[in-house]
Write the C-alpha coordinates for this entry.
Amino acid sequence: MKSTPTTAKKKVAADRHPLAVAFGEYLKSVRKNSDKSQAELAFDASMDRTYISLLERGLSAPTLLVLDSLAIAAQSLVG
Protein backbone atom coordinates (compact mmCIF):
# COMPACT_ATOMS: atom_id res chain seq x y z
CA MET A 1 0.00 0.00 0.00
CA LYS A 2 1.27 3.41 -0.96
CA SER A 3 1.87 5.87 1.87
CA THR A 4 -0.13 9.05 1.43
CA PRO A 5 0.17 12.19 3.56
CA THR A 6 -3.10 11.25 5.26
CA THR A 7 -1.92 7.78 6.30
CA ALA A 8 1.46 9.13 7.34
CA LYS A 9 -0.25 11.73 9.52
CA LYS A 10 -2.34 9.03 11.21
CA LYS A 11 0.81 7.05 11.96
CA VAL A 12 2.44 10.06 13.63
CA ALA A 13 -0.70 10.68 15.66
CA ALA A 14 -0.62 7.10 16.96
CA ASP A 15 2.97 7.61 18.15
CA ARG A 16 2.16 10.63 20.35
CA HIS A 17 2.15 10.08 24.10
CA PRO A 18 -1.29 10.74 25.65
CA LEU A 19 0.17 13.08 28.30
CA ALA A 20 1.99 15.12 25.65
CA VAL A 21 -1.25 15.39 23.67
CA ALA A 22 -3.27 16.41 26.75
CA PHE A 23 -0.68 19.01 27.76
CA GLY A 24 -0.58 20.38 24.22
CA GLU A 25 -4.35 20.74 24.08
CA TYR A 26 -4.33 22.54 27.44
CA LEU A 27 -1.49 24.85 26.41
CA LYS A 28 -3.27 25.73 23.18
CA SER A 29 -6.58 26.43 24.95
CA VAL A 30 -4.91 28.71 27.52
CA ARG A 31 -3.05 30.54 24.78
CA LYS A 32 -6.12 30.98 22.57
CA ASN A 33 -8.31 32.11 25.49
CA SER A 34 -5.81 34.88 26.12
CA ASP A 35 -5.79 35.89 22.42
CA LYS A 36 -2.04 35.32 22.14
CA SER A 37 -0.28 33.95 19.09
CA GLN A 38 2.26 31.15 19.25
CA ALA A 39 4.92 33.74 18.45
CA GLU A 40 3.87 35.94 21.38
CA LEU A 41 3.87 33.01 23.81
CA ALA A 42 7.21 31.84 22.47
CA PHE A 43 8.70 35.30 22.95
CA ASP A 44 7.37 35.54 26.52
CA ALA A 45 8.79 32.07 27.32
CA SER A 46 12.09 32.66 25.48
CA MET A 47 11.41 29.78 23.09
CA ASP A 48 11.07 29.30 19.37
CA ARG A 49 7.56 29.49 17.90
CA THR A 50 8.04 26.12 16.19
CA TYR A 51 8.69 24.49 19.57
CA ILE A 52 5.39 25.89 20.90
CA SER A 53 3.72 24.35 17.85
CA LEU A 54 5.32 20.96 18.55
CA LEU A 55 4.15 21.12 22.17
CA GLU A 56 0.60 22.08 21.21
CA ARG A 57 0.38 19.20 18.74
CA GLY A 58 1.73 16.73 21.29
CA LEU A 59 4.77 15.97 19.14
CA SER A 60 7.20 16.98 21.88
CA ALA A 61 7.04 16.57 25.65
CA PRO A 62 8.27 19.50 27.74
CA THR A 63 11.08 19.21 30.26
CA LEU A 64 10.77 20.68 33.75
CA LEU A 65 12.75 23.73 32.65
CA VAL A 66 10.38 24.26 29.73
CA LEU A 67 7.37 23.89 32.03
CA ASP A 68 8.89 26.49 34.35
CA SER A 69 9.42 28.95 31.48
CA LEU A 70 5.87 28.37 30.23
CA ALA A 71 4.44 28.84 33.73
CA ILE A 72 6.21 32.19 34.06
CA ALA A 73 5.02 33.22 30.58
CA ALA A 74 1.49 32.02 31.38
CA GLN A 75 1.28 34.50 34.25
CA SER A 76 1.14 37.19 31.60
CA LEU A 77 -1.60 35.25 29.80
CA VAL A 78 -3.98 35.02 32.75
CA GLY A 79 -3.47 38.40 34.28
